Please model this.
Amino acid sequence: MKTFEYIEGGVTAARGFRASGVAAGIKYKDRKDVALVAADAPAAVAAVYTTNKVAAAPVQVDRERTGSGQAQAVIVNSGCANACTGEQGLLNACEMARAAANALGIDERLVLVCSTGVIGVHLPMERVAAGAELAARALSREGGDDAAHAIMTTDTVDKQVAVELEIDGKTVCIGGMCKGSGMIEPNMATMLGFLTTDAAIHAEALDQALREAVDVSFNRLVVDGDRSTNDTVILMASGVADNNVLTPYHPQWQYFVDALTTVCLELGKKMVMDGEGATKFVKVRVMGARTDADAQLAARAISKSALVKTSWFGIDPNWGRVIAAVGYSGAEVDDRHAQIYYGDVCAYDQGRVADAPLLKAMRDLMLKRAFDVTVNLNVGSGEDTIYTCDLSLDYVKINAEYTT
Amino acid sequence: MKTFEYIEGGVTAARGFRASGVAAGIKYKDRKDVALVAADAPAAVAAVYTTNKVAAAPVQVDRERTGSGQAQAVIVNSGCANACTGEQGLLNACEMARAAANALGIDERLVLVCSTGVIGVHLPMERVAAGAELAARALSREGGDDAAHAIMTTDTVDKQVAVELEIDGKTVCIGGMCKGSGMIEPNMATMLGFLTTDAAIHAEALDQALREAVDVSFNRLVVDGDRSTNDTVILMASGVADNNVLTPYHPQWQYFVDALTTVCLELGKKMVMDGEGATKFVKVRVMGARTDADAQLAARAISKSALVKTSWFGIDPNWGRVIAAVGYSGAEVDDRHAQIYYGDVCAYDQGRVADAPLLKAMRDLMLKRAFDVTVNLNVGSGEDTIYTCDLSLDYVKINAEYTT
Model:
């Protein structure tokens, strides 16, 4: 099977979409903070939302609207999450969508809305309305980059990925952008992700593809274990590529899902790499678990452990903290059978402990920006992988200072 | 009902016990690292252990021995956890107990053993044996203080509490010491606790009293959410006080359990106060939950949230992070009904948000060393309380540098 190719761009790499990012003064002056992504015509849409029971107003609005399977635009603001804002917040989210719809001259029910930023503050609606106007006028095929910048909060870099693949002899593109660097865990985090494709695909199949992709990408990220009130991933398909309509019965279905998964995973990795204060990017693999579910429990416990994360920051192959985390994860484990690796170096082998030269080799490995930690429980064939980062002094500084 | 009185001392406050703490060079030179607590005669014993599936060798030994309901001494070392040390570790734990038994001239099956420190390192048995000898010779009625120092690892202060109460007209004492400042969560953490009482009570009732006390004290502490391989709480009763034997049918049973709970809770608070790098001691109360279990879920999620903990460190009444944590805790919550208080000041009231003067009042409160955060979910009558601390720069420093 052919593989796909990475190409330049993000949310406007796929044909049929334009985007923009403008400065509307939502929280700061002269900083891009309103993004707009618009399809040339109504597109198929699928979305995945936060599992947090305290869902922000825009999430409540979008949940209802994406039920129709159709959307044409998404307007996004940074600087204010519009969460815990009561009835007024809901009205404001609808008003924000309406402002974009009016500026675009389309039905407001085709406009989705996302917010990210501080909780418990009302949107400055005059600025939002002005921003929507400005953003609609600025829409362009090259606007993906501006949009990717406008959705950033504590992110230090913009995050965009696009791939090209061939389906039914037609060139299909999948691209996207996301923001998020803290609050990333079990089921995504403010984490906003916007994906577009020019593939021809109906909403139901699009939903299935998105869920499959998100499960092994965005849902496998851990930064700090907090989960946001605003998490949203939206995928729109314009159908301009003119392939035979994709369904799970299409011979190239899995190819499409794999490409979508790759886009999500690469965006996800960029978020973890840009995790607040992160100095290390760590791929935590657990194998030999009783079940896949057990492997996931163990991998998440390791990835969330403050003690493990600080040991990574300290360039310390402290495998004792790793096995302790597995021990309280709920996964079946017997330390007499377990093995722990840093990269290819075995730190702990069923009761035997690495000697000084091996510890040195592990420390050398940990000096790199990215490394793997692998645990083999040797009790079954369950596997899982989580992408995570360390817990650094800067994480604490950033989050002690980022204020209400 | 009479209340009890706090008195000086710790593990030797109760009659019938002697203790000591000596420097045996386990990890560092000239630092007390072996403690011994010994009853004058075989005592009733009860114990609670880590729920971590990776249990250290001493925990495995003690689990078996405390099943008999009788013990006469506990030997403890700091500097080495004797965890993940395989068969050799088990042999070493037994040998350590045997060394103490020989020095005391008692049956080795009456000696319990505890270790705390680095995982995956074997005990230096010659030094342990010499330490046991030394500690046995140093035993005294005033030795509680030395013992409390010898069990410390990253603790910055020793932790001792003792109370006196009257049962059947007799003076009964309950005292104890503990160590622990990191790795403290759901079900205790290396966290070692040693309690003694001169009350007359059989092992079965002692076990019931200890479990009741631990459930609302040590099991309600959160420092970093990690749970240790070595957690142990041991309670010995000498019976010297000569009260009528305590059982759940004794008219003063609850009085005794309450006093024991107080000792555990005060020791627990000392651990949280001394939490690694902690600058704030926070009592997190959740009320109005659907059930007590829901309240506990919510309180634990708040207490474990890195974002909430860093906001406390930053003197920032960031209630948005608090409600977000409740939202993903699994507890039933509707932000339109919830209320969040810092001390007595309402930060969030069912959709209404505190204004600037109230935020100022909350910041002033948070400048204190200790404060309460209270969440009323207003959906039921479930309640729970967790004692926790902030996440500071020093926490990261300590744990990045404390090395294998």
